[in-house]
């Protein structure tokens, strides 16, 4: 009985730590977004305001050109921030097209190949959002840390599971050394939210990393009160 109590206390403590880490992660994300909005969009709006106040001076055409240029950049920045918060168009266009858009946006940084096998069926919005976030997180980590030149995404529906394999040709990593990092935690928490299983493996060429995910065909995810 004493041993069971110790185990229970350890589990409760572990769960509390997970909750605390999750709250901290959310606060850090909110802080990052606030800084992005303040430093980027806020400063550009201030510049636009100053220019608009000077439209009655000489050089109006040049000022207007600068304003239009800044407005275009501002729209792009707002779109980028919006995407970082939530994939707003995923529900209408679906996971595959949204991942293809991500690939196009990152084409100047890394070569990404997407292979979706015939027979793939659109998933529930919650599952597709989680899969997109996993692919986005994996890709971001690879670009930041692995020095990879190529990344591959493979998606296939089986009778009982949906298999998703993401791999790269970068430096790879030792799971035990990086498992506490927020990138890995974010990926694994999203996998768990879909009641899925996963493995981290070396690639066939022993370079880079490989993530294998299997999502149950039925009961893909527990009841959720939100979509992200």
Structural class comes to: alpha+beta
Write down the CATH topology of the largest domain.
Heat Shock Protein 90
What is the architecture of the largest domain at the second tier of CATH?
A: 2-Layer Sandwich
Tally of structural domains = 2
- Any low-confidence stretches, pLDDT <50, length ≥5? 219-228
- The dominant shape is globular
Radius of gyration computed on alpha carbons: 22 Å
In CATH's first tier, which class of the largest domain applies?
Alpha Beta
| Percent in strands | 5-15%
- Counting DSSP E segments of at least 2 residues, the number of strands comes to 5
Helix content estimate: 55-70%
Query: What name goes with the CATH superfamily of the largest domain?
Result: Histidine kinase-like ATPase, C-terminal domain
Number of helices: 7
> What is the overall pLDDT average?
79
Question: What composes the largest sheet?
Answer: 5 strands, mixed
Main β-sheet, spatial strand arrangement: 1-2-3-5-4
* Order of SSEs: HHHHEHEEHHEE
How far apart are the termini?
Answer: 40 Å
């Amino acid at each position: 009985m004493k041993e069971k109590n110790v185990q229970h206390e350890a589990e409760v403590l572990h769960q509390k730590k997970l909750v605390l880490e999750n709250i901290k992660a959310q606060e850090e994300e909110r802080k990052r977004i606030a800084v992005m909005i303040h430093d980027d969009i806020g400063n550009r709006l201030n510049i636009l305001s100053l220019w608009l106040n000077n439209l009655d001076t000489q050089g109006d055409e040049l000022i207007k050109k600068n304003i239009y240029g800044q407005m275009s950049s501002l729209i792009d920045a707002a779109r980028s921030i919006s995407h970082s918060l939530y994939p707003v168009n995923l529900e209408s266009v679906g996971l595959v097209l949204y991942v293809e858009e991500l690939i196009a946006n990152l084409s100047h940084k890394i070569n990404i190949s997407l292979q979706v096998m015939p027979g793939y069926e659109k998933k529930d919005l919650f599952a597709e959002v989680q899969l997109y976030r996993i692919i986005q997180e994996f890709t971001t980590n690879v670009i930041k840390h692995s020095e990879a030149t190529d990344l591959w995404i493979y998606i296939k529906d089986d009778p009982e599971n949906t298999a998703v394999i993401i791999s790269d040709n970068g430096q790879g990593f030792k799971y035990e050394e990086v498992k506490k990092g927020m990138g890995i935690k974010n990926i694994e928490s999203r996998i768990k939210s879909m009641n899925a299983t996963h493995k981290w493996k070396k690639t066939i060429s022993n370079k880079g990393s490989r993530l294998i995910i299997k999502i149950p065909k039925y009961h893909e995810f527990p009841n959720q009160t939100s979509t992200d």
